[in-house]
Amino acid sequence: MFNLTAQAGTQDFGHGATSTWGFNGAVLGPTLRATRGEQVAVSVTNALDQSTTVHWHGMHLPASADGGPHQPIMPGQTWSSTWKIDQPASTLWYHPHPHGETARQVYRGLAGMFILDDPATSVATLPHDYGVDDIPLIVQDKKFDDAGQLDASPSGVTGMGILGDTIAVNGTVGPHLDVTTERVRLRLLNASNARSYNFGFADGRGFALVGTDGGLLDTAYETDRLQLSPGERAEIVVTVRPGENAVLRSFPQDLGMGRFDRFAGGDDTFDVLQLRDASALAPRPAVPSHLVGLPRLPRTEAVQQRRFELTDDAINGQKMDMNRVDAAPVQDSVEIWKLVNTDGVPHNFHVHDVQFQVLSQDGAAPPPPLTGWKDTIFLPPNVPIELIMRFSDYADAQTPYMFHCHMLYHEDSGMMGQFVVVPPGGSPSGTGHLADPT
Ligand code: C2O
Ligand code: CU
Fold first, then answer.
1. Among all ligands shown, which has an atom nearest to the Cα of 160?
2. Which InterPro entries does the record match to this protein (predicted)?
């Protein structure tokens, strides 16, 4: 049983005592951990002065346990849910999801990691000693006003929402890690409101990308850059030598988005974490090139296709409406979702409950970082992306799951829709109507 309390506190980011929110503490929340097959129970108490929810991002669970906008927790109340862990070993996370308030609540500090274990889909030779050679990194950008308080006003870059100029990692500005092993696994979570990062090391060293949102990759991918948009996670393994200092950094990236580029991984350079290596490092095995079996979902299994266009704070021209159901996939069925960002503003796309696979990006096979299980994907402007996913084995025609842009200001502004999973032959209940599938 996990007990979380959303509460107010203060944290020192280098500006004195800054008011923050956190779970069971001043800022962020404890890392939760569970093993496949386990029945977990969570109990969340809201000690804040406004309504909240807690959503389990990336988790496969019944819609009523999902913690989206339909499961509000009023101040002073406690909400409980339970589900069975049934998905690969992965790095998930949790955060509030009250419609219209998600951006500010996450920005104030409500977020935590949820690590899933599963012997059948993990690799024993990867670093896995939590806090020693297996390190969670929750990366967020913050900005401060003259009084040292969090500035949650929208940035001057119209349409982006909150953008910070200071990087906090696990709630700490300018962090370092004392490395004691020759390989370190970093579990990166971009828990920022709007900013994407383009991670790499200051000295140009490469690293192995071993996992993405929903689990390990089939094959380790050697690279020196990795872009993560808000909500995405990655597991990387970096090799260090005694006495070195390695700096994990976010680098510029050209995404062809003009004035938005620097906020979508562009011009800005930020140091994220300094790895301070001891003079003697305990040996760790090399990263194997083959990691886990990853069954592909074949295109031929899809029974439905839907198209979603993200533009102007809406999806297919409609803003989020808690009383409208936008899609009703059939329990256990496979669908192809075609996405396109047509307004040239940075967007990404997150689907609750499922882990999807990328069928194509701009008509071509996806690049290696997009070949594993994903629940959130960056949408470059005017680049069509096809996802394939199997919907839940839990049917509940009344309780929706969400899909949305995970740039939180866009989500709060209406770039979100709802789907229910219906039993075969079923239809959604309630007053909503369905968008026409194309
Ligand atoms: Cu990370 Cu609908 O959320
Ligand atoms: Cu967006």
1. 2
2. Cu-oxidase-like_N, Cu-oxidase_2nd, Cu-oxidase_C, Cu-oxidase_fam, Cu_oxidase_Cu_BS, Cupredoxin
